[in-house]
Amino acid sequence: MVDLLTTEKCRGRGYAVLISQYAEKNLAAAGINQLWTWVWHNNSPSIRVFEKLGWVYRGILVEVKFAGIKDFLRFKLPRLK
């Protein structure tokens, strides 16, 4: 799953949680036992979905793109308390 978007009239009804649970179940059945997500720090609705699913916040991934360089510079920051 790359993106999960719900229209305004469907928000707050638990659809994102149900779809995510379905995806988790099918990925586990396929032998995938570790998942990660990429959520903007200010995307409260998405953060709530993953909290409801029991996901654990592990840290922050920082990406920096320099002009003229093809790849991103990526580094992880530990969870801040």
Write the layout of secondary structure elements.
Elements: H1 15-29, H2 44-52, E1 59-64, E2 73-78
Summarize the structure.
With 81 residues, this protein is of the alpha+beta class.
Characteristic key phrases:
81 residues; alpha+beta; two-stranded antiparallel sheet; 2 helices; 2 strands; 15% strand
Explain what the structure shows.
- This protein has helices at 15-29, 44-52, and strands at 59-64, 73-78.
- Strands 1-2 form a two-stranded antiparallel ribbon.
- It is of the alpha+beta class.
- Strand 1 (59-64) and strand 2 (73-78) form a beta hairpin.
- The mean pLDDT is 87.
- The longest helix has 15 residues, at 15-29.
Number of domains: 1
Question: What topology, given as strand order, has the largest sheet?
Answer: 1-2
Low-pLDDT regions:
none
Number of strands: 2
Instruction: State the end-to-end distance.
Output: 30 Å
Helical content class: 25-40%
Secondary-structure-derived class: alpha+beta
Tell me what portion of residues adopts beta-strand conformation: 5-15%
Q: Give, in order, the helices and strands.
A: HHEE
User: Outline, from the CA principal axes?
Assistant: globular
Strand count, sense and barrel status of the largest sheet are: 2 strands, antiparallel
